[in-house]
Amino acid sequence: MTDERRPQPKAPRRAPPPLNEAQLRELALHYAARFATTRARLQRYLARKLKERGWSGEAPPDVPALINRLAALRYVDDAAYAGMKSRAMAARGLGPRRVAAQLAADGVDVDDRGDGPDEAEALAVAIAFARRKRLGPFGPADADRATQQKQLAAMLRAGHGMAVARRVLAAGSTDDLEADQFSS
Q1: Which residue intervals make up region (Disordered) (predicted)?
Q2: Taking a C-beta distance cutoff of 8 angstroms, is the pair 136, 150 a contact?
Q3: Of 94, 118, 127, 169, which is the most exposed, with the fewest CB atoms less than 10 Å away?
Q4: Do 138 and 177 form a contact (C-beta atoms < 8 A)?
């Protein structure tokens, strides 16, 4: 192999310059414009960027004031984020416990999470999950005990309560389950 064909080493990347107040504000606005986010997620993002690039200002950055300003302008709204995320997760068939855990991980305050689903909504979400995953009456009719335990575990991991999961999995047929759904 000749020297012409050998890959040349890449020049080291130059580190980006430290952030100033205007650049930090632009980063925050750009992030809030691109992603539905919460105050806590925006705080983590800005802290990471400050750690990566550093700060060039004389006084330390006032990140909480910047986040409060964006929240006052409604660019960041924890309650709206919680509602959107809850609906999206429920549409995927995930139960209220899983939704609450995700909202807590995203830094949504308990007051901003809203009320959880009522019993009929929780049942409807569990039925949708069982249908999508082919569990209980939507799956094979000859499920043995081990398969039933796996199905129950899947329902519980998805955030459904034990009573709702057992109710869905114990239904004899899809007709029974749908009739049960409309009667509650």
Answers
A1: 1-20
A2: no
A3: 118
A4: no
DSSP per residue over the chain, as a string? --GGGSPPPPPPPPPPPPB-HHHHHHHHHHHHHHS---HHHHHHHHHHHHHHH-B-SSSPP-HHHHHHHHHHTTSS-HHHHHHHHHHHHHHTT--HHHHHHHHHHTT--GGGS-----HHHHHHHHHHHHHHHT-GGGS-TT--HHHHHHHHHHHHHTT--HHHHHHHHT-SSHHHHHHHHHH-
| One-letter amino acid for residue 132 of the chain | R
This prediction has a pTM of: 0.81
Q: For residues 96 and 128, what is the distance between their CA atoms, to the nearest angstrom?
A: 14
Q: Domains of the chain: which residue ranges?
A: 21-76, 80-183
